[in-house]
Amino acid sequence: MVKVRVNRFGCIGHLITRDAFNSGKVDIVAINDPFIDLTYMVYMFQCDPTHSKLNGTVKVENGKLVINGKPISIF
Q1: Is 3 helix (H, G, I), strand (E, B) or coil?
Q2: Fewer CB in a 10 Å sphere around the end CB: N or C, the chain?
């Protein structure tokens, strides 16, 4: 499995992350975005009006973004 860090979590960044989780071939290990709050990342990832809601869980735990039980470090 390929390990990837996403630089910025805007429109493209969260779509890449979503596709990586759906493919199962890419492991997102970190996200670097100093401009977006962690709670807003959860909202963006979970409630994308263009690409539908995520079938899974997204939450904040110990300062990390946790998607379907997989913790991702945020910088």
Answers
A1: strand
A2: N
CATH of region 2-74: 3.40.50.720
Q: In whole angstroms, how large is the CA radius of gyration of the chain? A: 11
Closest to 73 in 3D by CA, of 57, 10, 26, 61: 61
Residue 73 β-bridge partners: 30
Contact in structure between 41 and 61 (CB atoms under 8 Å): no
pTM beyond 0.90, yes or no: no
Give the pLDDT of residue 61. Answer: 95
pLDDT for 10-33, tens place per residue? 888 888 888 888 888 999 999 999
